Hints:
Layout: E1 3-11, E2 14-20, H1 21-34, H2 45-53, E3 61-68, H3 73-82, H4 84-94, E4 96-100
Antiparallel strand pairs: 1-2, 1-3, 3-4
Helix pairs in contact: 3-4
Amino acid sequence: MADHQFVVMWDCNGLEYIGDVTQAEQSRTWSALKGEPATVNIPNLMHLKLRAQYNMQRHYEIYFFNATDGITAEDIREMFEASPQMAADTIRRIGHCFHSDRVREDEVKIR
């Protein structure tokens, strides 16, 4: 079964962005072959990273990860709504970190 690639971005307040990279690439390719303008945009990673860098107090994390074919962005959103900590831990374990301002326990001064 083929993998499906996503990019997700969350902060201390929860999930903020899910981008379906595979679907965007396929849509862009078909549009180009048909000679039509692309209707789906590929996630702009620099916009996501700039948002994270200028809002460091929110401790953003941006990850890429592969999911089996059939998993949708809505499935991922539901996973974050049902159990945000489990979702973040799972994506950290299986994904590739693009950006992280995650607070480490040893950096916390006052608890």
